[in-house]
Design a protein that fits this description.
- The chain is mainly α and 187 residues long.
- It has 4 helices and no strands.
- It is 81% helix and 0% strand.
- The longest helix is centred in the N-terminal third of the chain and has 54 residues.
- The chain is elongated and about 80 Å long.
Length: 187
Amino acid sequence: MLQSGSLDVDLRLLSERQVGPELGQDNISRGLTASWIALLAVIAVMILFYFFAGLVADIAVVLNLVIIVVIMYTMKGVWTLPGIAGLILTVGMSVDANVLVFERAREEYAAYPSAGLRRALQVGFNKAWTAIIDSNVTTALTAAVLYQFGTGPVRGFAVTLIAGIAASMVTAIFVVRTFYLVWLSRQ
């Protein structure tokens, strides 16, 4: 809807097109294809840079995606292009949390190798915790504002992002940490 301002403007219709529902399905298909490519690229890069730790992080990311899909299914959410974008942003945030932990643990192990891998991972999780909380809380607040003041697609993005942040916190902190604790206790 156009509302006129103080200037008197004459509007002319230059062209008119009708778009069928196939265009929306095509966009969603392309969005899903891009999502798969992004996910596979993230998996490959994490394994390439972090080896076994990257594989653990990749398992956490896949679990994160499963949790988000379950949350969206439970809420009877509809997948839109902005929702898919929120899903992919969540993958990046989940990987970011794992990278922070791994880099802090790597620094600790390089500084104090005699303390062992268990100690390096504990310090890595402890040092990365504040940065992870800060980035997730900031993003969650932004998503809450988008949900409060946004409309349809923007709200869909916000809901997916909030669900993703919650799932990311569970997988990146608790699942990965528990896995390492169990794995190191068997070494």
